[in-house]
Design a protein that fits this description.
With 393 residues, this protein is α+β, with helices and mostly antiparallel strands. It is 31% helix and 22% strand. Strands 2, 3, 4, 5, 6, 7 and 8 form a seven-stranded antiparallel beta sheet that branches. A six-stranded mixed beta sheet has the order 9-10-11-12-13-16, sandwiched between helices.
């Protein structure tokens, strides 16, 4: 049955006829279910891409077909429409971040620690800038360049994308050419770890001094007093199980309000924005800390979906000063995703069902910070957080 996300795990073990059948379902159902599938790409271009992939499935392996599907679905344009379910179990033991023209390894698991802090030169013999360019093809076409860049860099450490973009011989092996801090070249052959080994606590930061934003990765909302308890820093990274920590924060604001409250949304990938609005934004708006210069919200390129919405709410309903980098997702866009499971591969396609305007009247269609702060490689390496520091200052 076509509909919500299937419980059956996705598979690539299909015949060409089965792949073509799934592509026909994709071609028919995605335009029918998406609120406005052709607001960026034309129907003719979309259908031509489907037909081209159908012609080639007999000569492609599963990884290349899945990545080909993702390339087509991302042509729809909005950040909530894409392929899900295939990029969770083959994560390499490194995380990359771009600083200008350089890509650095900023976090590793134990099996990737030799790469920590190194500069990436090439993947599979392909220069890193070209590898990044290829990954842009599987990012949402109508979102900002900043969001697309961040998502492309995430895919540079996922085996299915590396293989599907011809940067690795398969999804389980990837060769990275690197430079250490002295400029000495070296190479590493990296393999994904088991799903059980890639939890938040298994990652080690490039710096021995772990910034606050990297601490307590499993907590949806946690707070820590700073500067002799005059400042309360709260990292709001998830809407899951938010009720109890949000109630604790509201109690703190009532009985012992700090002089300054800092809410960090930089790592929040979204959820239900009504939950954030009612449990955090509106109560903070009604609190004593809601004064200019006493309430700060930290934002970044990956502040996404409901978190983007709540950042807009903070700007509209409170005296908050937004600090950090522009939010990558466009505030006036197609959102509120539902899911479609393809019948043979059980690949799940996410698609948007509503159009929201969280920045009505904005010609640029962006949420920019009131105070923009860039982070350098030297600051990351030293364990510093200039965005938080600017709010503290």
């Amino acid at each position: 049955m076509l509909g919500a996300c299937a419980s059956t795990p996705p598979t690539e073990n299909l015949t060409p006829a089965q792949w073509r059948a799934d592509l026909q379902v994709l071609a028919r159902e995605l335009p029918a279910r998406h609120l406005n599938a052709f607001h960026v790409v034309s129907r003719a271009t979309f259908e031509a891409a489907i037909a081209d992939l159908e012609l080639r499935v007999a000569t492609l392996d599963g990884d290349h077909i899945v990545v080909g599907m993702e390339r087509i679905v991302r042509m729809i344009g909005d950040g909530h429409t894409g392929v899900t379910g295939f990029d969770h179990a083959d994560v390499l033991p490194i995380r990359l971040r771009r600083f200008g023209a350089e890509w650095r390894v900023v976090q590793t698991r134990a099996d990737g620690q030799a790469a920590r802090g190194a500069r990436v030169v090439a993947i599979g013999g392909v220069p890193i800038a070209e590898a990044h360019r290829r990954m842009l093809e599987v990012t949402p076409a109508d979102e900002s360049a900043e969001l697309r860049d961040e998502l492309a860099d995430q895919r540079l450490t996922k085996g299915i994308f590396l293989h599907g973009m011809d940067l690795a011989r398969d999804a389980q092996h990837a060769r990275f050419d690197l430079l250490d801090d002295q400029g000495h070249p070296f190479s590493l052959d990296l393999t994904p770890g088991p799903t059980s080994a890639v939890g938040p606590d298994s990652w080690q930061d490039v710096s021995a001094q772990i910034p606050l934003r990297q601490q307590h990765p499993d907590d949806p909302l946690w707070c820590q007093p700073l500067q002799d308890e005059r400042v309360l820093y709260c990292d709001f990274r998830s809407y899951r199980d938010l009720r109890a920590p949000a109630a604790a924060l509201r109690h703190r604001l009532q009985v012992a309000p700090p002089d300054k409250l800092i809410v960090d949304l930089r790592q929040n990938g979204g959820g239900d924005y009504f939950v954030g609005l009612h449990q955090l934004v509106n109560p903070i708006a009604a609190s004593a800390v809601n004064q200019r210069g006493h309430l700060f919200v930290l934002i970044g390129n990956l502040t996404f979906s409901a978190a983007m919405s709540n950042a807009a709410h903070f700007r509209q309903r409170t005296a908050a000063i937004l600090v950090g980098e522009p939010i990558g997702e466009r505030p006036n866009s197609y959102q509120e995703n539902r899911q479609l499971s393809l019948p043979n591969s059980h690949i799940v396609i996410s698609y948007s069902t509503r159009f929201y305007q969280f920045a009505p009247g904005s010609a640029e269609n962006r949420i920019r910070p009131d105070i923009e702060v860039k982070t350098t490689w030297e600051e990351v390496k030293a364990g510093l957080d200039p965005v938080l520091q600017r709010a503290l200052d």
